[in-house]
Amino acid sequence: MLYAAILEFINHRTGGDLPPQTVARLYQLREASEHIVRAVKEVKHMRGNTSRFTHTDQGQPTKLYNSLRIELARILIELNEVSSTDPEERSVLWLEDLRQQVQQDKKTIRHRVEHLMRSRRLKPHAASSFLNDAHYAYRAMKEMLEGARLLYAEPDDAMAEVERLLTMDEDDVEIDDDERQQERRSRLARKVKGG
Fold it and tell me: Alpha-carbon distance 103 to 163, whole Å?
């Protein structure tokens, strides 16, 4: 309902009576709301199994699902903290760190599930359900972070472009190694500070 109201408002307000920067920001806010809607839908997909495996203690499946719920909660807490931060002190660069942490957590959880299956502490059916739901959860986290990036984007065009470049996904740009990435960040930061 809220998303529909946002769409209606933007479609009716983006006529010729608003400055171009305002129109651009409205479209950016609409895109942010699209990411949030997708995140909610991802969480909805995992709700049934999450409830089933956490309603009563079922050993390893319960532990896995609880860890996934904690990760989702951690992202929500981080997003709440940034929303409470003074806009002058806010930078979306912290989202890159969170995005990388989510990617690392996703890899770690796969290895954990494989280990539990090899040691026969997790049945294949539970592992399959969990891995599918983990996929939904990590996509939800990615959508939340992307929505936050758009919502809290730096209003200054130069700084926004620098931050966008710094937070590009591996799919968007190939990075040969961590040193080259760090050097690029340092150069861009020096350019922004210098003018």
Answer: 19
Residue 114's nearest CA partner among 99, 131, 102 is 131
> Could you give the 3-state DSSP secondary structure of residue 14?
coil
- Our separate counts of H helices and E strands in the chain read 7, 0
User: Is residue 70 within 8 Å of 54, Cβ to Cβ?
Assistant: no
Q: pTM surpassing 0.85?
A: no
Amino acid at 95: L
125 or 163, higher pLDDT: 125
Query: What's the CA gap between 155 and 78, in Å, rounded?
Result: 21
Q: For position 180, what pLDDT does the model report? A: 53
Beta carbons of 146 and 78 less than 8 angstroms apart:
no
Closest CA to 143 of 66, 42, 47: 42
What are the pLDDT digits (tens) for 80-115?
A: 998 888 887 777 778 888 999 999 999 999 999 999
Tokens of residue 111, six digits? 């290895």
CA gap 65, 90 in Å, rounded: 32
